[in-house]
Design a protein that fits this description.
heterodimer, A: alpha/beta, Rossmann fold, 4-stranded antiparallel beta sheet, B: mainly alpha, 2 domains, two-stranded antiparallel sheet, 17 helices
Chain lengths: ~290, ~400
C-alpha cells in the first residue's frame, strides 16, 4: 500500500480568488514542512487534505485513496487545527474518550490508547483536569494526542506552535518528530524555526503557489554566498532596509549589526556569512517575489 | 458505537445548565396548572352545583347567542378573536345598519325596542354577567339563524361570538345531576379513569413542550461553535447521521424523561382511586398519551432547533419556534376543548369528554403523524447540512461553497 500523499494540479477557488494554483506535491513518510506567510494558502491546502474543503480540480490521493473518499480519508487522517479546543467542562480523559467514540474506537481500544497517548504527551497527571484549566501548551499537546488517537497514517498539524513559550515549543517539536517516525506528518507554519528543527523535506507556498519544494539543506545551499552581515550606523538603517531584505538586527549603541540578503556584496564594509534556514527563506521570497 | 455516543450525549445534557433551567420551567408549569391533581368524585344527588356545560339544544344556543348579540349591539362593542388575539370591533355606517337589520330579525324587535329591553335589563342587575337571553321569533328557523350569525360574524371581521366555532360557548348552562353522572361514568368506564386525566395532562404539558426543547437544541448545537471544535469533529470518521441522530435522540430522551416522571404521581392517584371503587384502571394511559401526543411536539421543537442552528449557526431557531408556538397557542384557542385540526399544540382542555376525543381521534392521529414526519424531515435535512459543512461545501449562515470564501484564513 502506498505511503505517500500525491497532489497533482490542485486548484482551489474562493469565488474569483484562487487560493491554490496548480499545486503539484509529493509527500512521503516522516515530517514534511509547509512554510509560507499568513494567507499563502497553507491552511486551505491542509483543509483539502483533511477533507474539510473541496478541491475545485486536480488529483489528490492519500496513501493511494482519492481525497473524494472522505470517510476512508478521515479514518487514516488525524487533524489538529490551528485553534484546538474541546468542551471546557470536560476533563482531559473525557475529551479524549468522546473524540475516540467519534473516531469509531471501541471502549477497550479507547481505554488502552488514551492512557498511552496521555503519557506520550506528558498529560498523564492531568487526566482529571478540566480542559478549561489547561495551559496553551497543554491544550496543544492534548490536540496532538486526540489527532493520533485512532493511529492515523497521516497527521496534519496547522500552525501548532503559535503562541507557545520557547520551552513548550521545543517540547512540541520533539513530540512531532517522535510521532513522525512511522507516519506522514505535515506541519504547516510560518515560523521558520519550527521547520528548521523538525523537517527534512519542505515546500514553500506563496500566494497559492508552490515556490519551493525540496530539502531544507538544498534551500540553505541556494542562499549560500547571498547572506551578508555588516555594522552600520543607526542613521543608515532605514536606507539599508529599503534596499535589502534584512533578516536580523542587533543594536550596539549607535551602531547596528545587520544581517541581510543580497546577490552581491552590498557595500564595502559588509562581510559574507553562513546562511541559515531563515536567511534562505528570505532569499527565496526575495528572489521569487522581490518581497522584503 | 452509536449507543455509546448516545449515552455520552445524554451525559453532556446532564452537565448543561440550560437543561436544568428547562426542568425548573417544566416542573413550575406542571405545578401551576395541574399540580393539585384532583380526582373527579362520583356526583351525588342533591349537590348544590355540578358545574357548567355547553348545551347543544338549538333553542338554548339561539336564545343565549341572540342575548349576547343584543348586548354587544347595544354597546356597539363586539368582541372577536380573529387570529386568536382579543379584538374589540366598533361598527359604523353601512356595517352598523346591516347589523341592525340582523339583530332586528333574530330578536323580532326594531332597534329602538331592543335597546330599551337591554337598558331595562341592565338597570335590574348590579353587574352585567352576560346572562341575558332573548327568545327568538317562532318564524326564525335554526338554519336561518345560523346564516344570519354567519353574516354578523363577517361584519365583525371573523372570530366573533357568532362564528360557528365560538357560538357553542354562548350556550353555557348548569350541568344536571344526570349529565354529571354520565360524564363520571364515561371517565370510569370508557377512559378507565386514567385516560381522561392523561388527556388533560397532555393538553397542559403540550403548551410548554412546544417551546422548551428548542432552547436545549440550540444550546447543544451552538456549543460546538462556541467551543471552536467543529473542525476537530468534522475530521473524525464517524458519519454525519450518527452525530446528528445521537444528539437528537439524547435530547428527546432527556426531555421525555421528566415528562414521564411527572406523570407518575397522577397515574398513581388514578390507580389508587380506581382500586378504591373497584374500577379497572388503564395503568399505561399516561405512557401511551405521552408517546402519542406529546412526543411529536417535542420532536418538532428539537428538530427546528437543530436544523436552523446547523444551517445558520445562530439562535434564530428560538425566534422561529417562538413565533410558531405563539401563533399555535392563540389559534388553538378556538379548539381548546378538543378540535385538534392541524394545530401544532392540540388542545383538550376538559376533563373527560371522551366522545369528542373519539370523534376527532382520526384528526388527532393525522396531526401527530404529520408533525412526526415534519420532525423527521427536518432531522434528515440537518444531517444533509451537517455533512455539507463537514466537506466545506456549506459554511455558516447557509452560504454555499465553493463560490464563497470561508471565515478561515487561506
Amino acid at each position: 500500500m502506498s505511503t505517500e500523499i500525491t497532489i497533482e494540479k490542485l486548484n482551489k477557488f474562493y469565488g474569483k480568488k484562487q487560493a491554490l494554483k496548480d499545486i503539484d506535491l509529493t509527500i512521503n513518510q516522516g515530517m514534511f514542512g509547509l512554510l509560507g506567510r499568513n494567507g499563502a494558502g497553507k491552511t486551505t491546502l491542509m483543509k483539502v487534505l483533511a477533507t474539510l474543503l473541496q478541491k475545485n480540480n486536480g488529483n489528490v490521493t492519500v496513501c493511494g485513496v482519492p481525497i473524494t473518499e472522505a470517510a476512508a480519508i478521515r479514518r487514516m487522517t488525524g487533524y489538529l487545527p490551528q485553534e484546538f479546543s474541546m468542551y471546557a467542562n470536560m476533563t482531559v480523559y473525557e475529551a479524549m474518550d468522546y473524540l475516540g467514540v467519534l473516531s469509531g474506537l471501541t471502549k477497550a481500544q479507547r481505554k488502552d490508547e488514551i492512557s498511552k497517548l496521555l503519557m506520550k504527551v506528558n498529560l498523564q497527571k492531568n487526566m482529571r483536569t478540566k480542559v478549561k484549566a489547561l495551559s496553551g501548551g497543554m491544550k496543544r499537546r492534548l490536540g496532538i494526542a486526540q489527532a493520533i488517537l485512532h493511529d492515523p497514517k497521516v497527521l496534519i498539524v496547522d500552525e501548532p506552535t503559535a503562541g507557545l513559550d520557547p520551552e513548550e515549543r521545543v517540547r512540541f517539536r520533539n513530540l512531532l518528530s517522535e510521532i513522525a517516525q512511522d507516519r506522514i506528518v505535515i506541519l504547516s507554519t510560518h515560523i521558520v524555526g519550527d521547520i528548521e528543527a523538525t523537517c527534512e523535506n519542505i515546500a514553500v507556498l506563496d500566494e497559492g503557489e508552490i515556490i519551493y519544494q525540496g530539502t531544507v539543506s538544498d534551500l540553505v545551499e541556494a542562499a549560500r554566498g547571498k547572506i551578508y552581515s555588516a555594522e552600520i550606523s543607526k542613521l543608515e538603517l532605514a536606507r539599508v532596509k529599503e534596499q535589502y531584505p534584512v533578516t536580523g538586527m542587533i543594536s550596539m549603541g549607535n551602531l547596528v549589526n545587520v544581517r541581510l540578503v543580497a546577490d552581491k556584496l552590498p557595500f564595502d564594509t559588509a562581510l559574507p556569512c553562513e546562511a541559515n534556514v531563515e536567511d534562505a527563506y528570505m532569499y527565496l521570497m526575495y528572489g521569487k517575489r522581490g518581497v522584503q | 458505537m452509536f449507543v455509546q455516543l448516545f449515552f455520552k450525549e445524554c451525559r453532556q445534557i446532564l452537565k448543561c445548565l440550560t437543561y436544568y433551567v428547562l426542568l425548573i420551567c417544566m416542573i413550575a408549569f406542571f405545578n401551576s396548572q395541574i399540580g393539585e391533581f384532583q380526582i373527579y368524585e362520583r356526583p351525588q344527588p342533591g349537590q348544590e352545583d355540578y358545574g357548567i356545560m355547553y348545551s347543544e339544544d338549538e333553542t338554548v344556543i339561539m336564545k343565549t347567542t341572540v342575548g349576547r348579540l343584543a348586548m354587544e349591539f347595544f354597546n356597539n362593542k363586539f368582541i372577536s378573536y380573529p387570529i386568536g388575539f382579543y379584538k374589540q370591533v366598533i361598527l359604523s355606517g353601512n356595517k352598523y345598519e346591516k347589523m341592525s337589520e340582523i339583530v332586528s330579525e333574530v330578536t323580532g324587535m326594531p332597534e329602538k325596542e331592543l335597546k330599551q329591553l337591554v337598558e331595562n335589563y341592565l338597570s335590574t342587575v348590579s353587574l352585567y354577567t352576560g346572562s341575558i337571553t332573548i327568545t327568538t321569533p317562532e318564524s326564525l328557523t335554526y338554519e336561518r339563524f345560523l346564516k344570519l350569525m354567519k353574516q354578523a360574524d363577517k361584519l365583525i371581521g371573523g372570530g366573533s361570538n357568532y362564528s360557528k366555532t365560538f357560538m357553542k360557548s354562548n350556550a353555557r348552562v348548569p350541568k344536571t345531576y344526570e349529565t354529571a353522572l354520565a360524564e363520571y361514568e364515561e371517565i370510569i368506564q370508557k377512559d378507565q379513569v386514567s385516560g381522561a386525566y392523561a388527556r388533560l395532562f397532555c393538553d397542559y404539558m403540550g403548551i410548554i413542550l412546544a417551546i422548551l426543547p428548542v432552547f436545549l437544541a440550540v444550546t447543544r448545537h451552538l456549543r460546538d461553535r462556541r467551543a471552536k471544535i467543529s473542525e476537530v469533529f468534522y475530521s473524525r470518521s464517524i458519519s454525519s447521521a450518527a452525530v446528528i441522530l445521537s444528539r437528537y435522540l439524547s435530547m428527546l430522551a432527556m426531555l421525555l424523561l421528566p415528562v414521564l416522571l411527572l406523570s407518575i404521581s397522577p397515574t398513581i392517584q388514578c390507580i389508587v382511586y380506581g382500586n378504591s371503587i373497584h374500577a379497572s384502571v388503564d395503568q399505561l394511559a399516561f405512557l401511551k398519551y405521552i408517546f402519542g401526543w406529546l412526543m411529536p411536539t417535542i420532536m418538532v421543537s428539537i428538530s427546528v432547533g437543530v436544523f436552523f442552528t446547523e444551517i445558520t449557526e445562530t439562535a434564530i431557531a428560538i425566534l422561529i419556534q417562538g413565533i410558531w408556538w405563539f401563533v399555535s397557542i392563540f389559534t388553538g384557542a378556538v379548539n381548546i376543548n378538543g378540535g385538534y385540526d392541524w394545530n401544532f399544540v392540540p388542545r383538550h382542555n376538559t376533563l373527560g369528554d371522551y366522545a369528542t376525543y373519539i370523534d376527532n381521534f382520526h384528526i388527532l392521529a393525522i396531526n401527530r403523524i404529520a408533525y412526526t414526519i415534519i420532525a423527521i424531515l427536518l432531522i434528515l435535512a440537518s444531517i444533509y447540512v451537517y455533512d455539507k459543512k463537514r466537506r466545506g461545501e456549506l459554511i455558516a449562515r447557509g452560504k454555499i461553497l465553493p463560490n464563497r470564501k470561508s471565515k478561515s484564513k487561506i
